[in-house]
Amino acid sequence: MPQLSFFFAYLHYNKIVNDKDSMNKNTITILSICTLVLMMSACSSEKAQSQFDVIEALDYCTGQTHRTLLQLEAMQDGKDYTMTPRNIAPDDSVWHLRKAAKEEWCGGFWPGILWYAYEHSGDSSLLSEAEMYTEQLGFLAETPAYDHDLGFLVFCSYGNGYRLTGNPEYKEVILNTADTLATLFNPTVGTILSWPRHVKDYGGHNTIMDNMINLEMLFWAAENGGGSHLRDLAMTHAETTMQHHFRPDGSCYHVAVYDTLTGEFIKGVTHQGYSDESMWSRGQAWAIYGYTMVYRFTRDERFLTHARKVTDCYLSRLAATSDDNIPLWDMDDPRGTSAPKDASAAAIVASALIELAGYVEEADAQRYSTHAEQMLADLGTPHYRCGERSVAFVRHATGHHPAGSEIDASIIYADYYYIEALLRLKKLQK
Predict the structure, then answer these.
(1) pLDDT by residue (tens digit) across 176-203?
(2) Annotation says 149 is catalytic
(3) pTM score of the predicted model
(4) Which of 29, 184, 333, 356 has its CA 20 to 30 A from that of 236?
(5) Burial of 93: CB neighbours in 10 Å, binned 0-12, 13-18, 19+
(6) Quick one: 201 and 330 in the same domain?
């Protein structure tokens, strides 16, 4: 490492100076010059390896967040805090808004971004905005579960809010929502039902890989005043998913279908990927993030081993299919590099890899953190960064390709996981 090279060079230089009685003056001079060159080279190498400026990237995100707030105020003639950003089309510069509702699974990401921007900047105006947008989702704690997305909705908003403020009202919302999410758990199957409205469509109990992210709220609730059963069912969900949701190579199905009455696994299919047997990039990203998070709460080596397996599968396929560190929306799209990319998957994986690096031996830790930094560096290039084009953070994300929805767009959850990854990297570099 450059720091070590510098250190040893310094020691060598001092030794030369201290031992000069045993050498002639010319020898000392030559060796000193060589040593100083080595020191300068080490410094230059260190600079080359640290080209990605995480503070600059976070400052950029904070600036874009302020620009979004100004845009929202102008669009609405004053802010309507029930309306939150969802996407920006590739040929547009204005956020398309969605109303906070149980059906709008992305409603928690914008308040989450505000919390993260406040965490980085300390700007009290962002704190006020985060509070206002977060509180629009409180009704979910008192509403029967529509589907599994309660974790995305409440933990990204109220969870970050409670972490940064300790507001006891936020904690109550989280705990009550966790209990609501738990009502979707089927003990016969061993997983949370993702989409109650689609049971007939799939011919049984359906569980999607995205659901892994919602387990975080259950684990947290169990450790912070909720019932121990929340941890038990989250564990069971993770175990059952690990058993049935993955192929031998570590790639995952988007949807696992189970017999509602017997709990038997029926089949794995896709909903948003290219085909049932393809690797939908964001699905694999959810798996990486999800099992890394599960290990954080459980310290069960089975989950760490699985997190590494699904991660290494993703990284291997990424290298084989993409021309940079941003994946195709689906790694089996036959169009290859002419197919749309998915910046959201890259942001999710980058965030997960930074955490995963903290749980593994030094060599793999370096490998995972390097991959994460490369992903973030690519997302910060003019090709992916929105800059003056729009007020979002990144572009070239893909939402639901088979439905023709949000293709090559800026999407709010891509921005959320991008700023989260940057904050994790900032803490890692301290």
Answers:
(1) 999 999 999 999 999 999 999 999 999 9
(2) yes
(3) 0.89
(4) 356
(5) middle
(6) yes
